[in-house]
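Chain and backbone:
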Amino acid sequence: CRWRPAPSDAMPSVYVDGVGSLVGESLAAGFDAAGYDVVRPTEGMSASELQSMVLSVDTTVMVAVPSADCGAADLMSLSCILAAFRHAVYPGTKRVVLVSTVATWGKLVAEPGVAVTEDHFRRRAPLAGSIELKALEDQLMLLSSSKLETCVVGAGVPYGKGEDILYPMFRDAWLRKDVTVPSNAGGTNALPLVHTSELTDFVVDLAEPSNPIPKPYVLAVEAEPIPLAEIASTVSASVGMGGTVMMDADAFTDAVMDMPELALLQVDLPLSMGKSIFATFTKSSSRAGFVAAASGATKDEFLTSRGVGPSRVVLAGMHGALMDNVAGLVQAKYNVPLVALADGVAYLQEQGQAWEAKQEALTAATAAAEENSEDAEAAAALAAAQEAVAVVPGWLTLYEELKVATEPQGKAKEETPPSEEMSGKCLRELLLTEPYRTKGYLLTTPMNQALFTSIFIVQDPVAVAEAARVAAEKAAAAEAEAKAKAEAAAAAGEEPPADEAKVEDGEGAEGGAEEEEAAPIPLVVCASVGPDRIVVMDAPDEFLINAEKETGEEGAPADTAEFEAALSAYRAGTAEA
C-alpha cells in the first residue's frame, strides 16, 4: 500500500518538471493525489530561481520524456538542476529522480543468447539524438551520495490517458483514415511501451521517503515489446477501420525533422523484464498490456481525454433533394458507416434466421444424443448446440413480431412491408452493434416524429432501475408484513390472514384494495444510438422538382402538384421530429 503522510506530519514537497507534457502533468497529478506539496516551474523563471526552487523541496523529479505537444525535453534546464545539487550546500537529504527514455538504449546490441535487463544499464548505447540525454543520466548517477539519493527511470514509449507520442495514430484511426506506420524499416522493431498511469504510480513510489532507492537505474517497461507495425494495426482495428500504410523513406525523413520525438518510435529493444523492479511493482496491477487494452480501456481513455466520440448523424431529406449524393460525399470524407432504414429489418431477419437455425441444430443434436446415448461425439455436439442458445438475445421478441408483421397476406407471395415503427425498432437494434455503436453512423431517411421515436426514444434507464428498486422494496415489505401477521395469528391460535395478493384482487375481502398506480417512466433519447447532429436537406420547390425529374427515380411523384403535396407532408413531418 502506498505511503501517505499522517495529518500531523509535515507535508513532503516535490518539484515536478515537464510542464505541458502528458507524462509531466500525470506525475504532478499523481504526487498531488499522494499528499505531496507539488511545486512546478513557472514561465520565464531564471536559472537561479530554478535552482533555489529545487533546493527548497524534498524530492525533485526531472522529466526527459519527449512529447508531441512540447517536443524534446529541455535538457538545458535539467543540467541547471544538476548543477545546483553538484555545487550548492543544502540541509538534510534530498532525492532526485530522472524520468528518461529507452532511447538511450536504442543502439545496444545484445550478445547472442543473453537477455537484456535493466542491470545492463552500463552498456546502453543511445540513438543519435539521445547522446546528451545519456550524458545527463550518467551525471545524475555520479552525483549519488549519502546526502543525495538518485535514480534514473528508463521509461518505455508512454501510451494511454489521451495519448502523446502515439496520438497521430489514434487521431487518424478515429478519423477513419489508414494509420501511418512512422518507419522506413517496415515497422518490425520491438518497441518497449509503458502506460502513463503505471509509470506515474511507479515514480511516485520511488519518491516515497520510506522507500530506499532500489537500483541506480531502473526500467519502466511492459513485459512484452511490440513491433511498431503491430501497434499501428492494433490502434487502427480498435479505434478506426483497420487499415495501415507504411511511410516511405522521404516522408519519414521529413516527419522526423518536424517531430523529433518520432525517433523514440524507432527503438528496437527486446528487453527481459521478468525480474525487474517495475515488474515486481506492477505484479498486482489489473491493467492489461497495450494490445489487450487497446479496444477497451485505452480507446476509452483516448476518446474521453480528447473529448471525442462516434459521429452519429441523421441526414434527412426528400428523395430528389440530392440526398444520396450529399450522403456519398459525407461518407467518403469522414468514412462513417452509411445506414438506411431498411438495413435494420434486413439485419434482424438475418439474425433471427440464424437463431432459428441454432434452435433446429439443437433439436437435431438432442435427437442424435438420445439415439446414441453412449456416443461421445453426439454428446459433444449436443453440448455445443446448447451453448450456442444459452443466452437468449434481447431482440428475439421483436423478431417474432417482425415475422408476424411481414407474413404474406391473402394470396400474395411477397412479404408485407413492415410498418415505419417496426422498421425503426429494427434499426435501433442494428445501431447498437458494431461498427455503428463505437464508430457512429450516417443515417439517410425522411424523418418524422413517429419514426424518430421508434428509433431513438427509450424509457429512461435510471428511472427504470429506480422503479424496479421501489417495486422490489414494496414486495419485500409486503412479504415481511404478511409473514409478521401470519406469525401473530399463529401465536394467538387464529386463522392466518387471507393472501395479500388475493385481497388486492378482491378475492379475500369485499371490494379488495385499490392498487397504487405506478408513476409513468419518462422517455429519453437513447444514449448509445441517439444522433448528435440532424441535418435536414431542403431547397426551393422549383429546384427540387427539376432535380427529381433529372433523377427519374421509380415511384417518384408523377406531376408537380403531387410532388408539392409530398414535399409539404415531408416538411411537416420533419418539423414534428
